[in-house]
Amino acid sequence: MENTKTIRKWFWVWSFEKEEEWLNEMALNGWVLDSVDWCTYHFVRCEPGEYSVRLEMHPYDEAYVSFMKETGAEYIGRMMMWIYFRKKTEDGPFDLFSDIDSRISHLDKIGKMLTVVGGANLLIGFVNSFSPARLGWVNLLCATLLMYALGRIHGKKEALEKERILHE
Amino acid sequence: MADGFALTEATYYILLSLVRPRHGYGIMQLTEELSGGRVHLAAGTLYGALNALCAKGWILLLPAEDDSRRKEYVLTEKGRQVLKGEVARLRELADNGERILREE
Questions:
Q1: Residue of B33, B40, B45 to mutate when probing chain A, most A C-beta within 10 A
Q2: Based on the structure, what is the number of domains in chain B?
Q3: What is the residue-averaged pLDDT of chain A?
Q4: What span, in angstroms and rounded, lies between the C-alpha atoms of A15 and A38?
Q5: Cα of B71 to nearest chain A Cα, Å
Q6: Residue B92 region by backbone torsions, left for phi larger than 0, else alpha for psi between -120 and 50, else beta
Q7: In 10 A of CB A150, how many CB atoms?
Q8: Contact between chains at A70 and B42 (C-beta distance less than 8 A)
Q9: Count of H helices and E strands in chain B?
Q10: What CATH number corresponds to the domain at position B68?
């Protein structure tokens, strides 16, 4: 019986919740995430439901990772700006965010990253449109996609903000 | 009171936990215990809140005695004032609620 499994999979930035759901389904089926590479997930065998997996956008921060370890979470790895953790389910529920405000500030973080990368692509695309290579359209296409992603993230944020009018 | 705003439940319990020095996991445990398991502080939320509270000067990070020690935080005098103000505000809310519902 194989003890490791590698799956290549692509998730759009606005479906990070789906990515997390998928990783937890894998854990329920006895495969827990062990490391990550560019669009590549490496799993190892575990008892079905032994772990919960969480991910979030967070710039790499040693202090944060050691803080998470103190609370019983294991650091799995990073992919771009995303950081992955897991925790044994027997050690209690595992969430990264427990109130609306911190969910909103997480979405803000994602939004800021998309704005910076999208803005850079727009600028490069614009400049390159006048260069002899005429490759500016590639960056403009990227910028369009990133702006679309920003819209999706903003929509999620608005839904949470509406909820916050009534409760935390 | 906190700049005229109400504290969130998370902030309230964090400040309350830090009347004595505690590390992150200790804050999470005490909060669950005090609220009878109702309030759960997730690690990411707690980390963000601790940084924000340090920036406001309501709590401070105690200097670590050695590198392996877990980071401990404690309430400042300013934080204690905010907490006292919040307790008074909550008492007013609860008193009014009880009185008006009783009169019904």
A1: B45
A2: 1
A3: 93
A4: 16
A5: 8
A6: alpha
A7: 20
A8: no
A9: 4, 3
A10: 1.10.10.10
